[in-house]
Amino acid sequence: MTNAPPGAFTLRATSGTARRGTLELAHGTVETPAFMPVGTAATVKGLTPRDLREIGVNIILANTYHLWLRPGRDTIVAAGGLHRFMGWDRPILTDSGGFQVFSLESRRDIDEDGVTFRSHIDGSSHRFTPENVVAFQEDLGVDIAMMLDECIKLPATSEAVAASVARTSAWARRAASAWRHGATALFGIMQGGVDERARAKSAADLVALDLPGYAIGGLSVGETRDEMVRLARFSAALLPTDKPRYLMGVGTVRDVIAAVDCGIDMFDCVYPTRSGRHGRAMTRSGDLNLRNAAFTRDFGPIDEDCRCEVCALFSRAYISHLFRANELLGMRLLSYHNIFILDALMADARRAIEADAWAAFRDRIGAV
Amino acid sequence: MTNAPPGAFTLRATSGTARRGTLELAHGTVETPAFMPVGTAATVKGLTPRDLREIGVNIILANTYHLWLRPGRDTIVAAGGLHRFMGWDRPILTDSGGFQVFSLESRRDIDEDGVTFRSHIDGSSHRFTPENVVAFQEDLGVDIAMMLDECIKLPATSEAVAASVARTSAWARRAASAWRHGATALFGIMQGGVDERARAKSAADLVALDLPGYAIGGLSVGETRDEMVRLARFSAALLPTDKPRYLMGVGTVRDVIAAVDCGIDMFDCVYPTRSGRHGRAMTRSGDLNLRNAAFTRDFGPIDEDCRCEVCALFSRAYISHLFRANELLGMRLLSYHNIFILDALMADARRAIEADAWAAFRDRIGAV
C-alpha cells in the first residue's frame, strides 16, 4: 500500500488500445486488466476466500441489492464490515443494485428522487436513493462503491435513452455529493444504450464529477455482440486515460479479450460460476459441456494447458460423472476452474501488454 | 507400509472395552477407532480429497450399488481404479450394496443365488451375487471390500431374522471363496437383528471364515437407540479381538462414543455431510441448526473449541446467512466442519485409550 488515495490508478503501459494499470484500494492493489468474480450475496458461489486467493483473484464483486435485503446493513456492520463478514481481506467492489432493481420491472416504481421496490424474497418494500446506496456501500466498508444508475432495456427509443442518461447524470451528481471521500472509492456508471450521442453526453456528465473511476453500464442487456463491442470501444474512448474503466457484465473469454482490446481495465460477470454450475468448463478455445456423453470416458484434464488444481487432479470423465450424479463437487470444481481460466487469461494479457505484444496475443486467442 | 498382508490389524491398547488399533491397508495405515466419511458416488459430497486430507481423514467409504450403476465398472477400471478416478490416494472401503438393494423393496427380487434389482436411475435390470460383488470391488482396487449380505428391516419375526442370517452366512462362504486374497481385504457382515441368538450364530459362521475384518450390520435400521447400543456391545464381544470391528451406519457424536465404548474400531455414516447440507453444525455437546433466527447476529465461530478452518474464519451469522440465501458454500462449510468434529473426536478418543483414560473421556462427552 502507498499513501495514494483509495482508487488511485496508474497506467503502466499500453499496447495498441489495450491498457496495463495498477489500481490502489483500501484492501490492496489490483493489477489491471482484471476480471472480478461475482459474489452476489457475500459469497462467490461454492468457493471459499482461500480458493480465490489460491487462484490469484485480487478483487471480487458483491451486490448492494442482495445484501441490502439479506442479511441487511446492520448485520454486516455488526460483523465488522463486509470483509470480516465473509472472510475476504482483499478488495471488494459492490454494484449499486440499480441493474437488479430495474430488472424487477413490475415490482419497482421510479421517481426523480429514487426508486421504491419490493423484495423478491418477502415482498417487503424498500427504497434506494443515490445517497442511501452510496452510504450503504460505505457502511459495508467496501473498496469501490458504484453509484445508483438507471439501466434501461434494449431496444429503447432515443427519448427513453436520453431520459435515462439525464436521470443517471442527476443521480451521479447527488451520489458524488453524498460520497464521504473515505476508504471507499466511488465509481460513476455511464448509460446511453447503443446511441453514441447519449453515450457521449453521459460520459461528459460523469467525467465532470472527476470520480476515481468510471463504469460502462447498459451493455450486455439485449444488444448484439457487435453492438456491444462497438459501444464499449466508443464508450471507453470517451473516458479519461488516467482513470480505471470498468465494463459491467462481461465474462466470456471472447468478450473479455474484446473488452481489453477496447481499452477496458475491469470486468465482472456471473458467467464463469453460473456456467460452471451447469457443467460448462471454459477454455481459451471455447467451452466444453461436460454433461455430454463424449466426456464420460475422457480421462484427460479439462484443459491440457491449464495449471489449476482441478486440471491437475481430476479428469473430464470424473467431472462428467459428478454432474450426471448431481454431485455438489462438480459445481465447485468447474466454478474454480472457470475463474482460474479468466484470471490466468488476464495475467497473460497483462504480460502481453507490458511487452507491447497485445495484438499478437489477442489474435492468438482469436476473440475480437 | 510394512509387509503385513492388506487388512492386518494390530490392537495397540485397550481401556475398559474401548480399543486402540492400527489397520494396515494397501493405500496406507488407518489408526482406529476411525470415522469413515461417506463418499457414496466417488465423492464425499461437496469436499475435495485435499479437504479430507487437511481434516486428517485416512479412510473413506464409497458404495458398490451406486458405482455399479453410475459410472459403472468399466469406466472406473479404464480410469485406473477408484482411487485414480476420484483423486484420493488413501484407503477406500466400499460397502457391498446389499443395504441399498434391499432398501429398494418392490424393485428387487432375491433368490438363493443372489438378487436381481432395477436401477433407481433408469429402471435397467442388474444382478448382484456374492461373487460378482466381491469381484467388482476388487476390480475397483479398493482397500476393503464388503461381502453381499441380506439386511432386513426391523422389527422382523425370528424366522425372518434366522433366514437372513442363514442366507448371509451362505453368501459369506461364497464371497470368501471368490475373494482373490490380493490388495483388497474382505470383511464379513454380521446380521441377526436384535436377536442375540441370531447374532451369535451369524458371528460364529463369519468368524469360521477367518476374514481380515468383521462388520456389524443390520443396526440403525429401525430399532431403538438402547437396542442398537445393547446389540452393538453384544455383537462386538462375539468377534475376535485381533480383527477390526466395523459398526455400519453410525455417525453422531453420541453414537460414535457409545460404539467405541462397545469395542468397535470403525464407523461410517452420512450424518455429518447430510446434516451439514441441511444447516446442522455438529459439536461435542450437540448440534446447532444454523438456520435458526438465533444465529443471524451470532458472530462467534460454530464451536469455540474446534480447530477447523471453518471455525477459524467464519461466524455462525455468516453461515446462517449462506443457508438463508441458499448458497452452496454453506453446505460445503458445514460438511467440512462436521467431518472435522468427528475426526478430531476420534483422535482424542485414541489418545484417551492410549492413556487408559477412556471412561473419563467418555463420561466427559456424556454420550453413552
Keywords:
42% helix, alpha/beta, 15 helices, 2 domains, homodimer, TIM Barrel, 368 residues, eight-stranded parallel beta sheet, 18% strand
Provide a descriptive summary of the structure in words.
The structure is a homodimer of 368-residue chains. Chain A has 368 residues and is an alpha/beta fold. Chain A folds into two domains: 8-269, Queuine tRNA-ribosyltransferase-like (TIM Barrel, Alpha-Beta Barrel); 270-359, no CATH class. In chain A, 42% of the residues lie in helices and 18% in strands. The first copy, chain A, is built from 15 helices and 16 strands. In chain A, the strands form four sheets. Chain A has an eight-stranded parallel β-sheet. A three-stranded antiparallel β-sheet of chain A has the order 1-2-3. In chain A, α11 packs antiparallel against α14 (328-354), α13 packs across α14 (328-354) and α14 runs antiparallel to α15 (358-365). The first copy, chain A, is globular, with a radius of gyration of 20 Å. Chain A starts with 7 loop residues before the first strand and ends with a helix. The mean pLDDT of chain A is 96. The A-B interface holds A 41-43, 45-50, 66, 70-71, 75, 78-80, 85-87, 277, 296-297, 299, 309, 313-315, 317-318, 321-322, 324-325, 327-329, 331-333 and B 41-43, 45-50, 66, 70-71, 75, 78-80, 85-87, 277, 296-297, 299, 309, 313-315, 317-318, 321-322, 324-325, 327-329, 331-333.
